Amino acid sequence: MDSEWRPDTEAEREMAAALEAGDGRKYAELLMSVPLYLPTLADGSAAGWPDGLPEMTGDQVLAFTSPVTLFHTLAGHARGYEELTFDELRQRLPDPDTQLMVNAGSPIGVFLTLGQVVALAEGTESLVPIDDVQDAVVDEMMIELRRRCLDELGGDEATAAAALTEVAPNELERKLENAVEHTDFDEFLLALLSAEVVVPTTAAVSDPGRIHDRGFPWRIVGEDEMPLIPVFSSAGVLDHVVPGGPHRVQVPFLDVVAAWPSKQHVLCFNPGTTTELMLPPGGVPELAAAVAEADADEPL
Fold it and tell me: Of 49, 51, 110, 133, whose CB is crowded by the most CB atoms within 10 A?
């Protein structure tokens, strides 16, 4: 969305300049002086909520500084808007802790409370860009997924974190560690896609080809609304992280991707280790589609 957005008003151009300069006071002064547009959401708008936009909760308010920016973000989700001033908004919502998502989905988006807007204008508060809030939410979600996965496997974070220093690394693990060291996600994925991995199971599996069977005994942890599937880079790492010698099968990671049970399942690869990879719901099917597209583009 950001690449297509353009300021619609002089105030929005000044807001963009204020954010670029890190001038929170100027941004707040502009916000308090321009009309605000609160969207009226269409029925069922929660379905297919715009990508990249934080999910709304009951104590948050979406506000925009122009109708153009509003409909750029909420095309198909807003059927209109209400115009009011910042002072009118404060009169309606007297709680200074009421949270605002201002110009969400645009480069001039920020996340702050009504009280923080006033504090910004007074120079006693700093801006919190919405991207930073989203990053923090994602980080918290990853922490919770890791904790849940390790807890249900009977492991713990301290033991998992030391796995690759206490287990002799195989070729895949050396490649993954190198990719992590160089912050090269493409290298990480390429190494993983070309290697075999170890998948915990709920029963013994003698034939790796069974992973494509409907009744394959995946070891699934987590809750029904967000089931987690742990996968490990080697039997050594699995045995270090998960006590008790669980059932497992070694298969190509490409087979794991191809046989993935559903869009709802989360991949927990090497949870808690230095080479951890979490792919959220839909992440593995997206990876499968990308692999298929790359294969189709290769010359015969």
Answer: 110
